[in-house]
Each structure stands twice: as C-alpha cells, then as structure tokens.
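Journal club prep, notes for RB
We'll compare a predicted complex against what the paper describes. Inputs for the pyridoxal-5'-phosphate case:
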Amino acid sequence: MKQETAIVHLGRETASAVRAVNPPLVRASTIVSDSLATFRKGYGEKVFDSLRYGRSGTATTFELQRMMAALEETEGCIATTSGLSAIVAVLATFSGPGRHVLVSDGVYGPTRAYCEKVLVPAGTDVEFYGPADDIKARIRKDTSLIFVESPASLTMEMYDIRQICAMAKSANIPVAADSTWGTPVFFRAHALGIDLSIHAATKYINGHSDLLLGLITGTNDALEKVRAQCDLNGTHAAPDACWLTLRGIRTLSVRMRRHQATAMELAEWLQNRPEVRRVLFPALDTDPGHDLWRNQFSGAAGPFTIELTKCDEASFARFIDSLRLFALGTSWGGFESLVMPAIPHHLRNAEQADEGRLVRLHIGLESPDDLRADLEVAFAAMTGTL
Ligand SMILES: *Cc1c(COP(=O)(O)O)cnc(C)c1O
C-alpha cells in the first residue's frame, strides 16, 4: 500500500464494529475484565496495545499508535500528552549522572531549556553540537544518546543524519530525532537509521491547531526503556487528542504537498524582495543545507525563517502588525499562516541576534496570491511607503 492510501485506510480497525467510517472515541480510566485470565493477560504480556488502565491507552489510542508505527515503517509507537513531553520522555530515559548526551544546536527552544535547566543540574553532561561538527570526535565512552533536530528550529540548519546514525551505530549509541518538520510524508526517519523518531503531532499530523500530542516511534526494543519511563511518569495522551488526530491525519499527504508548493513559491519571491536580506529555507537551491535536504527529505514543510534588512523597532512592529492573514502566534503545522519574531535560543546572547531581525513564517493553505499581497502591504508599512 502506498503511503497516501495507508493514511486513509489504516487506523480504522475498530470502526466496523460500530459500522462507521471513523473509529469510535473510547474514553476510559478503568478497564474492566470479564475474567481473571483476561485481567492477567493485560498486565502479563509484552503486548503494548493490551487494555489495562486508561493511562496506557484505549482502543482509540491504539488505532493511532498502530497507524503511526506503520507510517514510520517501524514496530511501535507511544502517544504522549504533547510534543515536548515526548522529547522529555526520550531525554530522561537516556540521561542521568555520569552520562553524556549529544544534542544538536538550535533544537526547539523548550528542548534546550529542559537540557539546561533539568538534565544538567541533575548531573548529565549535555553537549551541544553544530551542523559542521565532527560527531565521531565527540562520542565518548559514557555517551548514552545522540539527539538531532533537522532542520534546526528557527535557524533551519540541516544536519547530516545518515552520517550521525552511522557514527552512532558503530559506537552502539541510540539516535533520537525530532522529526516534526518533515512529518512521515517527507522524512523517513527509521529508514535513515534513526532509532527513536519523535513527532509533535500537535503540528502537521493533527494539522488543525486545536490540540497537543506527542508520538514516539521505533522498534519495540528501541522503545522498551521509553515505555517504562512513560509508564512511571504517566505521560500518556488522552484518547480525545488521539481521536481528533485520527481525523486530522487523513488529509496529511494532501496538506503537506500544498504547504510545500506555496512555501516554495513565497520563499522564492521573498528572496528577491529588497526588505529581505536572507531566506533560511533548505528547499531553496541557494541554501547551504540544500544538498543535505535533497538527500534526506522528499519534500519541504511550510515553516521557514526570513531575515529582514536592518530596521528599527517601530518599523518592525509596523511590519508584524500590518499582516492580516499571517496571525501572530507561536507554533505551526495548522492549516493557517502564522508569523512570529524568531529569537533562536542558541543565539540569544550573541551579537547576531540584533543584527538582522529574524521572522519565522508558517505558510498555510491559503492562496499564495493572497499571502503575497498580505506581505506586500506589511513591507510597505515597514518601510514607510504605505
Ligand atoms: C512544537 C514543537 C515541539 C513541541 O510540541 P508541543 O506539542 O507543542 O509540546 C517539539 N518540536 C518541534 C520541532 C516543534 O515545532
């Protein structure tokens, strides 16, 4: 089955019992068993979609988990309360006193904050590495995890995932990736060698900006310790979020292709605007990460960053405040366009931060013509030519 077909047909196993197209939403805390044998079976086996207690999921959760594992071409999936809780579960599993964890620079801000404010004080040696750094030279005897997010949040640098995975494999170290930007449509995480692929399903997978959900995929072996971590911490997602995500995901492949087409069109147009110094988007052939992107992704998602030419605070505010279709808000991955001043965590104290102003755009499903017109008005307001 091609992926487009799988997105439509998987995750509907429980629908036929109620003769509906969509699977029913099953909410439960207590799960009741018809016999002692059934009760024991739920707890006794290494089966991850066995009914035990609401925290480990209901039929609704299992539908989404099975579907996501299939889309990611692997065995298992854990649904958690948010993208951040999924990242935290993975980092917490492989960290601890005396352990060394390698994390790519420019990871999602809250991922970095968790490393710096929780892992480091608790005794983990967290080392950040850049896209040009030699991973092999950084791997140590006590390295317990390599975490990568590519492209980097906000600054969009690409990492050589194949190379990172090859180095990690020869040293027997697991690699976890934040795969949110690529989605399973454009990014085959496990085929590239990643052991644990993490998605903020909050973004494109749900696609409607109305819930938080994290998904972690991998083989059952790779997931074993993470499952235990989630069980100990009660990190599991609510069935409601899984059910809405099963609705949202049906259009994922269509949405991604449209996000890509409009993002490409606007990025190319923005590149030639006098108000824009730089467009940070690996899908552009002028981007330093372009070859890595071509090599590892089959498409590009809708968020990218632009660097405006130097402007004062008042002009910058006029630019942001004049936008009508680009709503001012964090996040991305919904059907709608968004804009946000981007202050990358790892550049926060650096001089680069006040040089050019970085703005993160999320290109939604609107007409590219309308989005371009919206930006044109905002540029005119910014430069005072309106
Ligand atoms: C939004 C996001 C997250 C966090 O997801 P939440 O569900 O909002 O917690 C993690 N990684 C990336 C790359 C994101 O964009």
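Talking point for the session: The pocket of pyridoxal-5'-phosphate is lined by residues 82-84, 108, 149, 153, 178, 180, 200, 202-203, 212, 214, 331 (CB under 6 Å).
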